[in-house]
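writing this on my phone so excuse typos. first protein, seq and then structure
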Amino acid sequence: AMRAVLVAIADWKMDKKQFAKTTELPGWGGLSEESKELVRASYLYYEEGEFPSEELVTLTPPPLLQDTQQSRGVK
């Protein structure tokens, strides 16, 4: 059941119909509320162009990416 949910959300570009089908999968209830909100935010970003809140998606690049940018002279 969870595998079906993971496969469904692997491609974050889902429309309203796909999002609704995903939330009805038996494994959907096994996701944390934070995970469900992230999937919903990803759906809204693709469908409506609404970027997820910074609470869900930080605007600060991860350390590995920061190191790469600094080595290239990007600030």
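second protein below, same order as before
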Amino acid sequence: FPSDEAATKLLFLALRNIEKDWKMPQRTWKLAANQFAIMFGEEPVRISV
């Protein structure tokens, strides 16, 4: 990867795509997903349990 930010962005996008198939979200995923969203200017993650 050309930079750490590029690698982190790819990880964020991959996780955002696979979370659609999750049956039950991980307990700490909302916190991590919202931190990614802040870093990359995305909308905060809304996960209903």
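The chain has one domain: 4-40. thats all i got for now
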